[in-house]
Amino acid sequence: MKKIKLAQQHSSRLIYGCMRIAGDNSAKGRAKGKQAIQAAIEAGYNHFDHADIYGSGECESLFGELLKESPRLRDHMIITSKAGIRVANNRSPQYYDFSNRYLTQQVETSLKRLNTDYLDLFLLHRPDYLFNASDVAQTFQQLKASGKVKNFGVSNFSPSQVSLLQSALNEPLLVNQIEINIHNISSFTDGTLDQCQQLGITPIAWCPLGGVVYPAWGNTFSNHDQVRIETELAQQARRYDCQPWQLILAWLLKHPANICPIIGSTTPERIHAAKKALELNYSHDDWYRLLEARNGNAVP
Ligand SMILES: NC(=O)c1ccc[n+]([C@@H]2O[C@H](COP(=O)([O-])OP(=O)(O)OC[C@H]3O[C@@H](n4cnc5c(N)ncnc54)[C@H](OP(=O)(O)O)[C@@H]3O)[C@@H](O)[C@H]2O)c1
């Protein structure tokens, strides 16, 4: 698997997303999740994406079971986890919380569930509108000094939120994990990917197949747009001798910001087959053809 440098480590260019690995949390669902992780390891993924809230913690616990069974795997892995979203319950609405106490508690809980002593990367899951950059910087410093976290990043942050937080830190934010797919390309134009290139931040794409393979986060194309995009994808897929969804990944990989898509499939064949996107010699003009099909008009 092709790799990309992340601080002192080398991450597989495709990251394996663990949000769905616990399935419905039945024995059958969990066994499928374990098979998916094993398939990802065999296929050469070495970077695994988690969050405290995935499967209400069950996704981290399942992954931790695997690490307990095979502790040696840990040395060759990059493990990311995220926190900051407090899920609604019958006493309170969902909200974001970057307080020192909450983030520290969530990191410690994730470590216990994952059966590991440290996270390679800890991300703030969604921007807390009430965050104080100096307070977060202090929390990061403490987490690093304690050895619980090696490096930090953010998720779903705007460029100005990244700049604000970065201005208070004495170490670089390594990643911004955002939704990027054929439906949601706001990062192409809102400065997010420009900032990533400028500051050496790696953009990580969640839901990379959203919009065509399944609805993007809460959004779909109209039937008319969908047909036009799928027609272009089918034509290109014939020329590149691949499947349409692999082309969508190649389209993201072509961007000079070095986007790393997170593959969230739990189907071993798809986890392996996603690698084909890394081998496609995807051309500049085909990239624009797909953009044109997506937009419904040519670029001016
Ligand atoms: N930071 C954030 O706010 C945030 C938000 C959402 C997700 N994430 C991260 O991003 C990762 C990926 O997100 P995701 O799981 O939504 O993305 P994804 O990989 O784009 O989609 C996975 C879903 O699409 C299906 N699928 C994948 N390839 C397919 C294909 N070729 N044909 C038909 N169906 C296909 C999968 O089904 P099968 O399992 O049956 O193959 C699965 O249901 C998550 O695991 C998580 O780590 C982060």
Distinctive features:
300 residues, alpha/beta, TIM Barrel, eight-stranded parallel beta barrel, 17% strand, binds NADP nicotinamide-adenine-dinucleotide phosphate
Overall radius of gyration: 19 Å
Strand adjacency order, main sheet: 3-4-5-8-9-10-11-12
The percentage of residues in β strands lies in 15-25%
Q: What is the count of distinct domains?
A: 1
Q: Describe the global form.
A: globular
Structural class by secondary-structure content: alpha/beta
Bound molecules: NADP nicotinamide-adenine-dinucleotide phosphate
CATH architecture classification name: Alpha-Beta Barrel
What profile does the largest beta sheet have?
8 strands, parallel, barrel
What's the number of extended β-strand segments? Answer: 12
